Automatic annotation (TrEMBL):
This is 2TM domain-containing protein. Keywords: Membrane, Transmembrane, Transmembrane helix. The chain crosses the membrane at residues 28-47, 59-79. It comes from Alteribacter keqinensis.
Length: 105
């Protein structure tokens, strides 16, 4: 097992012990918040050039509502997808590790 794989494997054991629900909620919160802030700033830049007027406009409030609904959905979807990818990687490493150990015994 390569160093990066070994580090991931050891870390993922701890993540799994803390639980899927906790991981997805934490990652969804992080992903959703970053997406929300990024989209609000990007929309403001594209629409008004990120002026003070943008942050006091109806457009800003509309964007807050729209991205306030969209961002949590994105955050949850991204977190769930990442959990599944990490589980697949972990399972692959376990199979590889079992095969290597079997060959050595």
């Amino acid at each position: 097992m390569q160093k990066e794989d070994h580090r991931f494997y050891a870390k993922w054991i701890g993540v799994r012990q803390r639980g899927k629900k906790r991981y997805i909620l934490n990652q969804a919160l992080i992903n959703g918040t970053v997406a929300f802030v990024g989209l609000i700033l990007l929309a403001g830049f594209l629409q008004d050039g990120l002026t003070v007027e943008y942050f006091t406009s109806e457009t800003f409030m509309s964007n807050v509502l729209f991205f306030g609904v969209l961002s949590p959905i994105y955050g949850w979807t991204a977190a769930r997808s990442r959990w599944n990818r990490n589980e697949d990687r972990f399972d692959d490493l376990e199979r590889l590790n079992a095969a290597v150990n079997k060959d050595h015994h």
